[in-house]
Amino acid sequence: MTQLKDDCIANKRLSEQYEKRDFNKEAASWDENPARLKLADDVARAISEHIALTPEMDIMDFGCGTGLLALRLQPLVRSVTGVDSSQGMLDIFDAKIARLKLDNISTVLVDFDKGDLLTGNYDLVMSNMTLHHIKDLEPLFAQFHRVTAPGGYLCISDLDLDGGKFHEDNTGVFHFGFDRADLKGVFMKAGFDDIRDMNAAEMMKPSVTGEMNRFSILLMIGRKRSD
Questions:
Q1: Alpha-carbon distance 178 to 99, whole Å?
Q2: What are the percentages of helix, strand and coil residues in the chain, rounded to 5?
Q3: Which residues pair with 29 in a beta bridge?
């Protein structure tokens, strides 16, 4: 009961600072951006190269959006649970699941404003390009640790420090990328060990002046102790 109470308090803090950007309005056209499709390919490849995915594994994709990353890893594992705060994004994802007739993948709406908590027990928890929309990381990482099975992994892919140049509109953006040493400290404080980082992908985006900017995407992996 004490742990649940602590999680609820932390979740309230998280809900007060969670994303302000309205992703529901963007859901219908989300997959039309070729750069997002390539990023999902690159991150899926990086995860599968550094973690031995098996048909016995259950995974959670936090901030799953329309399922771009989750669907790429789904054939390699037993089950995938896609978690997002945008019902519009999940509606698109659910339509894909139905069209492809997939029975090992499901979605869950998690609304921190209503006090929702992450639930379940997963061999891998992953989150792609979502963390920079979370102001206070520690409450979220505490939940990540709680739902990660002993010996399981947490995989975060997100921007390296970008100076605020990645988004045309920084509404709802609380981190202009991440310093890898600082992010490793968040992993460690949450209780993850064997933390390593690598380059997962690069994205090219034009600036307001038309100049192309190159952005690197990190992948950081931590493991929950099994003892």
A1: 37
A2: 40, 30, 30
A3: none
What domains can you pick out in the chain, each with its CATH number?
2-224 (3.40.50.150)
The tokens for 71 are 């669907």
CB atoms closer than 10 angstroms to residue 38: 14
List pLDDT tens digits, range 186-203. Answer: 999 999 999 999 999 998
Give the 3-state secondary structure of 117-172: CCCCCEEEEEEECCHHHCCCHHHHHHHHHHHEEEEEEEEEEEEECCCCCCCCCCCC
| Residues 4, 61: Cα–Cα separation, whole Å | 22
How far is it, in rounded angstroms, from Cα 85 to Cα 157? 18
Distances (CA, A) of 210 to 168, 204, 206: 12, 12, 5
The whole-model pTM stands at: 0.85
Distance CA 87, CA 83 (A): 10
Instruction: Summarize pLDDT for 21-62 with one digit per residue, the tens.
Output: 565 555 666 577 888 899 999 999 999 999 999 999 999 999
Question: 142 near 190, Cβ under 8 Å?
Answer: yes
